[in-house]
Amino acid sequence: MKQLKHPPSSTTSSHDPKLLVRETLRITADLASAPPSAAVPPVSPLLSSETTTNSLNFGVGVDRQFVDSSLRLLCCEEIDGRRWKYFTDESSCSSSSGGRVGGGCEQLKLKKKKNVIRAVSLHSPQAPIEEFMAFIRSYVVPEGFPNSVTPSYVPYMTWRALKHFFGGAMGVFTTQTLLNSVGVSKHRTTPGAVAINWILKDGAGRVGKMLYARQGKKFDYDLKQLRFAGDLLMELGAGVELVTAIVPQFFLPLACAANVAKNVGAVTSTSTRTPIYKAFAKGENIGDVTAKGECVGNLADLLGTGLSILISKRNPSLVKTFAFLSFGYVFSSYREVKSVVLHTLNRARFTVAVESFLKTGRVPTLQDGNSRENIFNFPWKNHRPIILGPRFREAVEDPNSFLAVKPIFEKENYIVTYNPSKGNIYVLLKDQAKSDDVLKAAFHGHVLLHIIRSSTKKQSSSRRQHEDELSLSLLSAADLQAHVVDSYKMVSALYMPFKSKAKEQGWVMSESLLNPGRARLCEMVK
């Protein structure tokens, strides 16, 4: 019986799907790895348009066995949101070329293709504007943004950039004014004298910078207040520099005073910069956050300087220009400082947290507590309702009142007393006081103040603040002693819940930021 032979076309048709996919993958990989000037290889006539379209998305519309049959997928890679796939050609003709005349030639060609890795991009090329924006972002935002910084980073940098914009614009007018003032009498002043005046001005600023550096830890625990105060000094110095245009004969003293103020502001800005950037950084990227933040400030300063140069050519009113730029600078500085969210509790934020807890039973969130912090409560402000760690002679005027409350705090490492004549609550610390004892002592002082204010509260809300200030002097010694006893009971019951709720909200409680005085009560040696 004669064996039937299948037509060749049937064999070809059975391998067509696999052959089509192989050819598509080979051509696409060659196009991806070839240089832009390389010629595009012709597409096999066996490939239909539908097959070609579906095969371009590797791993989506192509079966894995077809990929492995010709090109093996090595790995997938993602960088900056863009994905790549890497293939290698593992085809071999050793099994099909045995006994053929051209087998050796084909084997040589395969050896040349051996270990070739081809990269295929799964994304279309970016538009020029997108590439430009990516280039700008690499200079102004930290790597991994926005996941590498806290949410408060964006509003802070926005207001910081606006502040530097107004500062750069102001610098053009102040510099122009100083140059005109120092050279106003150049017909009778030698260039050497002008240079000496300018050097003396800069020297006075450096001296002021060194003297102000003794503030020390105040840059840490009251950094928002000092940062804003430093910006106010910067604007004060700019205003004094502009006054030299009115009285140029007093250039040297005015310029020296202005430079001292501006250098003090510069010290404040430099000293408070690192703690603020540290609050924004997530992980060990504070260097990246700092570098990008300074880049944003310098860029905004350059833009402000360039715009101010164009405006100065039209000779605008110096008073109106200064008023507009100063308002913009101070307002931006205030919003910049208010946008900072710190996790630590200094005196201002500790007061907000304790008062909120005593009134509502809840500790404010980080965002709420920082937004309610009083920025205008400067460290050198004398009147404070609660004095932490004072000298004994400042806290006690009546020995009997001290001896009356001393037994109450026998088991504590602090003593809370009062001074009716000064209207302040004083928290004396013992030499055994540790970090938690200082926190508890500060909490006790606020509890006692809350009790006294509540007991002397009047119906008229318009006079409430005045009455609070006089509340201590209106109370008798017996009433005050009773309030101290009540406060001790409240602290024993509420201090631990307060600490627990504060930690739940993310607050970091550290006594060093409360800035207690250095005086300590020590035991008497018999």
UniProtKB/TrEMBL annotation:
<feature type="domain" description="Protein root UVB sensitive 6 N-terminal">
    <location>
        <begin position="11"/>
        <end position="126"/>
    </location>
</feature>
<dbReference type="Pfam" id="PF24160">
    <property type="entry name" value="UVB_sens_C"/>
</dbReference>
<dbReference type="InterPro" id="IPR006968">
    <property type="entry name" value="RUS_fam"/>
</dbReference>
<dbReference type="InterPro" id="IPR054549">
    <property type="entry name" value="UVB_sens_RUS_dom"/>
</dbReference>
<dbReference type="InterPro" id="IPR055412">
    <property type="entry name" value="UVB_sens_C"/>
</dbReference>
<dbReference type="Pfam" id="PF04884">
    <property type="entry name" value="UVB_sens_prot"/>
</dbReference>
<feature type="domain" description="Root UVB sensitive protein C-terminal">
    <location>
        <begin position="363"/>
        <end position="516"/>
    </location>
</feature>
<comment type="similarity">
    <text>Belongs to the RUS1 family.</text>
</comment>
<dbReference type="Pfam" id="PF24162">
    <property type="entry name" value="RUS6_N"/>
</dbReference>
<dbReference type="InterPro" id="IPR057404">
    <property type="entry name" value="RUS6_N"/>
</dbReference>
<protein>
    <submittedName>
        <fullName>Protein root UVB sensitive 6</fullName>
    </submittedName>
</protein>
<feature type="domain" description="Protein root UVB sensitive/RUS">
    <location>
        <begin position="130"/>
        <end position="360"/>
    </location>
</feature>
